Amino acid sequence: MEPESVYSVRSESDTGSHGGWTSLLVTLSLVLVWYAWLYFKKPGSRLPPGPRGLPLVGNLLSLDPDLHSYFAGLAHTYGPIYKLQLGSKLCIVITSPSVAREVLKDHDVTFANRDVPAAARAASYGGSDIVWTPYGPEWRMLRKVCVLKMLSNATLDSVHDLRRKQVRRTVGYFYSRVGSPVNVGEQMFLNVLNVITNMLWGGTVQEEAGGLGTEFRQVISEMTELLGKPNVSDFYPGLARFDLQGAFRHMESLGKKFDAIFETVIGQRLRMEKEGAKEGKDFLTFLLRLKEEGDSKTPLTMTHLKALLMDMVVGGTDTSSNTIEFAMSEILNKPLVLEKARQELEAVVGKDSIVEESHLHKLPYLHAVMKETLRLHPVLPLLVPHCPSETCTVGGYTIPKGSRIFINVWAIHRDPSSWENPLEFDPNRFLDSKWDYSGSDFNYFPFGSGRRICAGIAMAERMVMHSLATLVHSFDWKLPQGDKLDLSEKFGIVLKKKIPLVAIPTPRLSDPALYQ
Q1: Which positions are annotated as binding heme (predicted)?
Q2: Cβ neighbours of residue 133 under 8 Å, at least 6 residues apart?
Q3: Can you name the residues that pair with 497 across neighbouring β-strands?
């Protein structure tokens, strides 16, 4: 090779090397700027305290999978309000009633928005449901449809027979398995799912989807797990389009399984209406009528309608069935609690009759059992993350616009400064009528508080109470020989039992015909 050629090649190599060093220096400079922005206070702002993080990743690498207990532990070090830097996302964790009150009551409008994870966007038709839609006219329309129309006490009363029929069907199943172990949570999930699909479109999962109840539970379990799992797309929004963990694609494929069912039942209902069939009383009939009547300013679209169906199916099943499973586990672990609940049921219902919804308001101790279950094992341990629409001050600290706000209701419900013997399951503490689900007392708010409080409280209360009362009243329960009751939890956006409750039912009622 001629000298000129050698020189020429070296020159290009040096140039490439120089370019590489320049890129590296630029990257390092950006990291330093980011680090300085993160850890040095801006004039006039005072971010909450929190653990130091690493450049670019912040505190991501130190996260524990059991976020609710991990966050509670950090609160002992950093106080009732602290920050975590998760990638480029600033997260604020709140672990005290007084600070929760500031967020959910004093600054309710500011914090009425959601920080929508990528997986949630995939599951909710782009965030078109009541859970994730931004606060504004569209959300108010959806809230009105749910609370005043679809989930009101009057509407729930009108579909009472549908719920009753499904509960009796579940009792019949347990009766057929007398003396054999049954997975209580699995059966209660199927029970709740069929109650909900009955109310939604007048059919059960077996009828509409070929007996896929177990598969449906797996699909919904995967969906709630994805919603609670850390996702790179949420911590680095610039990378969201690449979906590096595949969470969006996975959630989208799960959502399509439900969308296919929604399309089928909606198509059937529209055809029935064209043929002049008798109008049903289920929610789908009601929603289709609302869609046609529509508010001209903020109409209910078909996308909204399907997103609401998704909320009901996904949001109402795991939550209610897990609560029933936790409640059954706790009272089987406390024979005195079980005996007291049974005495109340026998006094109100009697052993020669079955539990009806009309009995529920006469069962204060069983209500206390449900409330205590939701205290120790709140359905959404960190609620649904809030997001401030503007920078504001909470607890004496600056909370920047766009932060992700976690409210650790699980830790607040176990705070020894608010609750005597907080880890003890004691329904007696709820016999005082001052405790309710309104979210007005920030020592106890399992369904959230403020504008974004859960819309399905009335339905959840009826389903959990009726199912729990029926299980306790209709059967004796014992664990299979050699099994021990385990009350440990598995974290997710929806809290669940780590070890499923498997128990053996024995009939208690005087007449076998009551189980038919």
Answers
A1: 454
A2: 114, 127, 139, 142
A3: 489
